[in-house]
Write the structure tokens for this entry.
Amino acid sequence: MRLVTLALIVVAGSCTSGSEATTSDVSGATVAQPLPTDAEAPIDAPTTTSTLAFTEPSTAEQPAPTVKAEPAPTIEAEPAVDGVPLVAFSDGVCVTQTITRAQHEAFTWQPFTRSREEGAAVHAVADPASGAAGPFAVILRLYESSRPTGGDDPVEIGGNQVYIRVLEDVDDPGEIGNGEAVWDLPDGSQGYLRSRGLNQRDIESIVTSLQPRPANDPLPGFDYDTDGSQPERLTLVAEGTNNLNSSAGYRIECALDIAAVSLTVVNDEGLLPYVMVIDRFPPKWVEQRNNAVLIGGSAVLEAPQPIPDQVVAVTKDQWQQLATIN
């Protein structure tokens, strides 16, 4: 029987494992990336928009004692390190499952294989309520891009020729999949946008709202000037450079009868949840649950894949029975 490898990522946020992965661009070229995600799909791969939680009776005075009802017990997920919630696949999902702890380290994200420069400005625009689980865009300003601009039917925005592509979600035809926009700026830098769940008009509106910062700015990216014409509720939710810092996190390897599934858990702050969702093959689903983001499966695979309800909170003792440390 052929073994199929799927990817299921739970993001409670801005952290990765120390292991290397690869990302690829529209050309299919690959480059080493220390992100705990699958290879980034070409822009024409589809995407689907859908990176957890587990008191004492008293009596009245005599002569007629009464007992107050005791609330139903609840179990809260105990944090691992740096507040990362402890979760695992529910009983019966995996033949076996093991957890590998990640280590603290810094790394340079090479976005979509478009640049190897360090210190490139990165911005995330999203609805704060849905975060990486809803429509969003990751925007970069690159001074050492390895890919030229170009394409069909550019749109002129702010005096720049902007090349935009928006693709259909093959898993749900008629729905919006991944998109991208690329444009050259007068100072020789390049703007690049990768989106999820946004249509062409949304992307044009976002690019129109980007105002280049001076090259000597501490973060020489863009200001996001909102005037009411932007997609509803989308705001600048995170920004920084592509020099990212990983913190505590872990990966769960789940062996199934016909597939091997991985689930990665990190905390939910900063740029990394957005990077992990968008710089990989499109997931089957993305769901935000309290402080966690669950990123599951692959939109292009037909094999049965675990669903969010099959990822549950566990106690510290249960989690440690599964855990090892790299």
